[in-house]
Write a structure and sequence with these properties.
This protein has a six-stranded parallel β-sheet, sandwiched between helices. It has seven helices and six strands. Strand 3, helix 4 and strand 4 form a beta-alpha-beta unit. Helix 1 crosses helix 2 and helix 2 packs parallel to helix 3. It has one domain: Undecaprenyl pyrophosphate synthetase (3-Layer(aba) Sandwich). The longest helix has 24 residues. It is of the alpha/beta class and 236 residues long. It is globular, with a radius of gyration of 18 Å.
């Protein structure tokens, strides 16, 4: 079975899963964070080189204030322990998104984590935090325009390859496979440029219940796709 080099995941269903258990939504996010740790390990041992997770979108600020506060606290705590795990597991961690909107101490932790793990050669983990694909592209265009105005870039040099160099995912290959949990079948402003030729896999399993077995199902479905022409492979 061919394992995708890069898998992107939309971690959906934490709150609904918690509600189905008679628990507050924040409990679902806590359990979901533990699932992240497990799946990172499983993906790496299966041969995945890049794993990109949608942790907090630009639209998530519109959620109830207490839920946003709890999510921010959870993400901060996750980054604290992430450094220890990253170094012990040889994992490189990068954060996608506009971190300038986060608290200053949070920004410092992100920068420290990225710097401390940049030489690691195991799993490349990208965490999309305060990320929205439209926002990413607008920020990229502004940087390109600035470089153009400063004489560093001509209009003729503005190619797809050059544009990709201004995105948050600079130097990271596009995802081969996108997984979204909990039954929703939309991209929700996630990696719109990067997912142009990716295969999509949707599952009704909520993120807190996502497991190695579910990841294997997604990869099996990926292997049934015809990557040359799109669609499902014909039976031999």
């Amino acid at each position: 079975m061919k394992v995708p080099e890069h898998i992107a995941i939309i971690l959906d269903g934490n709150g609904r899963w918690a509600k189905s258990k008679g628990m507050p939504r924040n409990y679902g996010h806590t359990v979901g964070a533990k699932t992240v740790e497990v799946i990172c390990e499983d993906a790496y041992h299966m041969g995945v080189k890049y794993l990109t997770l949608y942790a907090f979108s630009t639209e998530n600020w519109n959620r109830p204030a207490n839920e946003v506060e709890a999510l921010m606290k959870l993400l901060k705590n996750y980054l604290k322990t992430c450094l220890k795990r990253a170094n012990s597991n040889n994992m490189r961690v990068r954060v996608l998104g506009d971190i300038s909107k986060l608290e200053e101490d949070f920004q410092k932790k992100i920068i420290e984590l990225e710097e401390a793990t940049k030489e690691n050669t195991g799993l490349n983990l990208q965490i999309a935090l305060n990320y929205g694909s439209r926002d990413e592209m607008i920020r990229a265009i502004r940087k390109m325009v600035k470089d153009h105005d400063e004489g560093k870039l001509t209009a003729q040099e503005m190619t797809e390859e050059v544009f990709e160099g201004y995105l948050d995912t600079k130097g990271i290959p596009d995802p081969d496979l996108l997984i979204r949990t909990s039954g929703e079948q939309r991209l929700s402003n996630y990696l719109l440029w990067q997912l142009a030729y990716s295969e999509f896999y949707f599952t009704d399993i909520p993120w807190p219940e996502f497991s190695k077995e579910e990841l294997e199902k997604a990869i099996e479905a990926y292997n049934k796709r015809d990557r040359r022409y799109g669609g499902v492979k014909e039976e031999a």
